[in-house]
Amino acid sequence: NERYNARESEPKWQAKWDEAKIFATQNDDPRPKYYVLEMFPYPSGRIHMGHVRNYTMGDVVARTMRARGYNVLHPMGWDAFGLPAENAAIERKVAPKAWTYDNIAAMKKQLQTMGLSLDWAREFATCDPRYYKHQQKMFLDFLKAGLAERETRKLNWDPVDMTVLANEQVIDGRGWRSGAVVELREMNQWVFKITKYSQELLDALGTLDRWPDKVRLMQRNWIGRSEGLLVRFALDPATTPGGETELKIFTTRPDTLFGAKFMAIAGDHPLALAAAAKDPKIAAFVEDCKKRGTAQAEIDTAEKQGIDTGIRAVHPFDPTWSIPVYVANFVLMEYGTGAIFGCPAHDQRDLDFVNKYQLGNTPVVCPEGQDPASFVITDTAYDGEGRMINSRFLDGMTIADAKEEVAKRLETAQLGGAPVGERKVNFRLRDWGISRQRYWGCPIPVIHCEVCGVVPVPDKDLPVTLPEDVSFEKPGNALDHHPTWKHVACPQCGGKAQRETDTMDTFVDSSWYFARFTDPWNETAPTTPDVVNRMLPVDQYIGGVEHAILHLLYSRFFTRAMKATGHVALDEPFKGMFTQGMVVHETYRTADGHFASPAEISITVEGDSRRATLLDGGTPVEIGPIEKMSKSKRNTVDPDEIIGTYGADTARWFMLSDSPPDRDVIWSEEGVKGASRFVQRLWRMVNDAAEIAQAAPASRPDSFGPDALTVRKAAHSALDKVLNGIERLAFNVSLAHIREFSNNLGDVLAKSGTPTPDMAWAIREATVILVQLFHPMMPHLAEECWTVLGQPGLVSEAVWPQIERDLLVEDSITLPVQVNGKKRGEVTVPRAATTAEIEAAVLALDAVRQALDGKPVRKVIVVPQRIVNVVG
Ligand code: ANZ
Ligand code: ZN
Questions:
Q1: Ligand 2 center to residue 488 CA distance, Å?
Q2: Residue 293 pLDDT > 60, yes or no?
């Protein structure tokens, strides 16, 4: 037989699937639905190996579930808004829309060569007004429902690019593109009220049992619930700038109150501003605090700094105890009350702070087993468990009891006619700021009127579309610079008004696309209730762990907000979530220190050692560490080239074969070649088997001889194990079982000669099963094999083979054997063996005879199915 030619075969089958429209999903299909979704791509221009891995996994699930009789929904689209399109416009003078759609066309073509079982009829791009029109409608619904609001917020402002930056875009206090020092600016922006759902989003994590634990943990930490106490400290009015009398703080450690050494307030706390107004040194420090991003990582790593305001607070349990109040750069106005008391012995930030300003520390929690007298804190704060010390009435208590005691006492204590303490649950989660001062995004559909204020764009005027005649000459928001677009008449009073020129964060676009896929044809509403509620939730969502927090959390919020506004009837959009690992590759460095790309080098393997040389000239190249594929390290491989050389099936197989799917996979030329050889081997085997299969009886023989039975058992056991692996998304395990089974079958074929009819029948059955098992991973090869085997129709449409459970029962059993209580060996007996037969087999064992060393056997105890004990 000839070699399998992927280059001819793959396009042929893709065209056949297309013609037969076998992956088009009908919403009214009566079978149970199964929704498989991979995170849709940003149209950057080309697909990369990460996409290949992601979509291959999704495709395996989709094809398997389709074969198993589900109405599978497996759509694809484009996350098409975002900054790179504007950058291209600035740098290359191409319109963002043209750039985006060109990229989509190029990437779609690439995806189509992968042989994915996608329903392309549902494809859309989020930059299409037919999509974002509905997003605008939902924005207005959210506005009405109080789920969208305007809020004044401090944001990272890049004065050169004239735009707000996300925290991740501020690097060492500077804008990532412009390099300009970022300012904190108070700005009016639109937020979605995700904090209304803080508790619910947290609680519901408990129901997501098909999500990775680490993703749930990341979400939990991001939501950041903490139980604590609000405490009002009295201030000495003689020391305050405007005669203020109290300072309210939030603490999660009220137990440590007797270890307090200072109070600290945020640079923009009203008290700090009042103090700054009176003292230029404080004013200078407050100014300084503004000159940094809002990113938590930055705050955590920055040196702790502060300035004494001269203000003095009074300890809530001791009127004679005066505590200095500092302005400190590590206290945020946005969290709690923007003020804290500092207990340096038990909080590292506070300890760093007091060590710098020589305020001292007093430990108040002593670890169990430590002598309190010798327990000293110097550079490392103690945040573990223990008993209270140096804390008057709290001494000897556990932390939990001390917290409770302090809470109780402060709840009843009075200050100015109100309780001093109040229990409070705080969340770290902030409302979701969605305003972006950018052109290439979904316009926020409101109009600002001097008379009427914020006026929603009337439904009949939706969508508010982006103008296409924009210029990117000036920095900043091209929408804002447009000569006419924003000038409109107020829909309410008809007076002069202006459109909102902010557009939505692109995370909004990706927060509901999965719902839109269920009925992308609905022109009048974002969703069609009976369809969306039947097709959602997504049963299996697959994507990168980099989206584990924001995208998933926003989608969970958005689904709840859509429920509140009548667009869906469920809370959780993703029933199963899977985060795939990265695709990594060796790096190569030439003698002059440059990176060489895998395409430029050749590898020779000699025994255990591998050498790399430049293809051009043959000079040796150093093989460097394995790293995430990236342009800068030049260690990327191009899916197009791989598919062109080896075929999509080989690429898909190798992608799944080597590593557990949640781990990184090392892409290597040798690995791909191995996969390619396996493809040829399967092809030869199936052709060999096909000759035997032709001679097999059409109907199932009444009985099978032992050899035929062995073949059948191997096939059904593979069926069981491969499916089990796919169901657990342990694709590498499934692939290993397919390999093992094919090796097995290969041996049988090599030895079969002219098989008996029952054997021929068993071989045909096994080969058909084999092809069906590898079809989800290598669909083109499988179709070709299916034809060779003379099977009707397409394997992509074939029903998953039925497992015959009775073939799975192991017919022998292995029992451990002990002699006088010590394990000496094992015995393998037929499952149906009697006690007498087992005894005989055990006593015949060499190991048992040796252990007995000539002594007579006093007793043999057989614990059925478990163990055999020989007493000598
Ligand atoms: C005293 C104390 C003693 C604290 C101690 C901790 C340890 P979580 O768990 O994240 O909620 N804090 C409160 N508001 C803050 C703000 N706006 N900026 C910076 N820090 C703030 O953290 C709560 C703890 O973080 C609070 O408990 C407070 O310090 C600090 F041994 O109060 B603690
Ligand atoms: Zn008006």
A1: 10
A2: no
Confirm if 137 and 43 have CB atoms less than 8 A apart: no
Yes or no: say if 483 and 533 are a contact pair by the CB < 8 Å rule: no
| Distance from C-alpha of 578 to C-alpha of 390, rounded to nearest angstrom | 50
Residue type, 225: R
Is it the case that residue 132 has pLDDT exceeding 60? Answer: yes
Place of tokens 């791909």: 672
Give me the chain's average pLDDT, please.
Answer: 94
Check: CB of residue 527 under 8 Å from CB of residue 515.
yes
Evaluate: CB of 336 within 6 angstroms of ligand 1: yes
User: Is the Cβ–Cβ distance between 157 and 165 less than 8 Å?
Assistant: yes
Is residue 347 within 6 Å of ligand 1 at its C-beta? Answer: yes
Binding annotation for ATP: 631
Per-residue confidence band for 646, with pLDDT thresholds at 50, 70 and 90 = very high
- From the number of C-beta atoms within 10 Å of its C-beta (0-12, 13-18, 19+), residue 310 rates as middle
Strand bridging mode 601-606 / 609-614: antiparallel
CA of 496 to the centre of ligand 2 (A): 7
- For residue 166, count CB atoms less than 10 angstroms from its CB and return exposed for 0-12, middle for 13-18, buried for 19 or more: middle
d(CA 204, CA 572): 8
Beta bridge partners of 823: 818
pLDDT in tens, 511-538: 999 999 999 999 999 999 999 999 999 9
Q: With DSSP H G I counted as helix, E B as strand and the rest as coil, what are the percentages for the chain, rounded to 5?
A: 40, 20, 35
Q: Is the CB of 251 under 6 A from ligand 1?
A: yes
Say if residue 545 is exposed, middle or buried (CB neighbours under 10 Å; 0-12, 13-18, 19+). Answer: middle
Q: Is the ipTM of this complex over 0.85?
A: yes
For residue 120, give the nearest of 106, 103, 105, 108 by alpha carbon: 108
444 φ/ψ angles, rounded to the nearest 5 degrees = -80, 120
Going by C-alpha positions, the residue among 778, 771, 764 that lies closest to residue 798 is 771
Q: Tokens at residue 69, please?
A: 């009789």
Does ligand 1 have an atom closer than 6 angstroms to the CB of 377?
no
DSSP, residue by residue, 28-94 = T--SPEEEEEEPPPP--SS--HHHHHHHHHHHHHHHHHHHTT-EEE----B---SHHHHHHHHHH--
- Testing ligand 1's pocket by substitution, the residue of 225, 253, 346, 354 carrying the most ligand atoms inside 8 A of its CB is 253
User: Distance, CA 336 to ligand 1 centroid (Å)?
Assistant: 8
Q: How far is CA 688 from CA 677, 760, 763, in A?
A: 17, 12, 10
Please list the residues that pair with 498 across neighbouring strands: 448, 487
SS3 100: helix
Q: How many Å apart are CA 266 and CA 328, to the nearest integer?
A: 6
